[in-house]
Amino acid sequence: MLGKPQGILFDLDGTLLDTARDLGNALNWVLRYHNQPTCEYEVYRNIASDGSQGLLEIGFGSRLLDYDIDTLKAQFLARYEQQICVDTVSFEGVVTLINGLDKANIPWGIVTNKPQWLTELLLPNFAEFDACKVVISGDTLAKRKPHPLPLTHAAEIIDVAPQDIWYIGDAKRDIDAAKAANMTSVVANYGYIGPEHQSHRWNADLYIDHPQILLQHL
User: Fold this and answer.
1) 35 — alpha (psi -120 to 50), left (phi > 0) or beta?
2) Domain definitions of the chain by residue range
3) Where does 34-171 have alpha helices with state H?
């Protein structure tokens, strides 16, 4: 039986925000720029949490070897910055969950591998995140997930012991980071997870199919 969390930390893409379509739009812009076939949503959705590298790999496939990856990443990120919140929405139930945390006076924050400049561009579009106590991005510190440092640093900022914090994410690196930080690990099954990820092998403490399920543990 899991105890009540005293603090909650979230991954961002695929956990709080459904950013896949805007990331895919940027990928397809780069593909069209290089006269390559575009990528369908069903193909890139479950890669969205892997950032520019993963998306470019799925989009270009074996043809990626014909290009300079750093140039492609720069093109991808520039386009994504321009169109960062066109089709992005919070997952169904996230607003209700956040309101519940605020009502219960449970501090919460975000720990993402997304670059800080993109995180800071994206979050202000969502008023539900105004009460967020901490935001740690992929380049905020010297290490990023799956290293536990971003999580333990966030714990210090919200002043809650790691063992009393739940971390929710949709990638194995999220669960690995939570375990290394001595936090309760929660898999967001509704996020960018496909059968190929074999999330049942991640040995998380809890798997949830909807954000609001967390409210049952408050």
Assistant:
1) left
2) 7-18+89-217, 20-82
3) 41-44, 51-60, 69-82, 94-103, 116-122, 149-158
Tens-digit pLDDT profile for residues 42-57: 999 999 989 999 999 9
What region does 52 belong to: left with phi over 0, alpha with psi -120 to 50, or beta?
alpha
> Residue 121: phi, psi to the nearest 5?
-75, -35
In CATH, the number for domain 7-18+89-217 is 3.40.50.1000
* Torsion on CA atoms 200, 202, 205, 206, rounded to nearest 10: -40
Q: What angle do CA 153, 113, 130 make, to 5 degrees?
A: 70
Given the DSSP bridges, would you call strands 165-169 and 7-10 parallel, antiparallel or unpaired? parallel
Q: How many CA atoms lie within 13 A of 217 on its CB side?
A: 23
- Which of 199, 167, 168 shows the shortest CA–CA distance to 183? 167
pTM: 0.96
CA dist., res. 146 & res. 172, Å (int): 8
11 is known as an active-site residue: yes
- What is the model's pLDDT at position 217? 86
The CA distance from 111 to 90, in Å, is 16
pLDDT tens for 145-169 read 999 999 999 999 999 999 999 999 9
β-sheet bridge partners, residue 188: 208
Is 150:141 a contact under the CB 8 Å cutoff? Answer: yes
Instruction: Tell how far CA 109 is from the center of its chain.
Output: 12
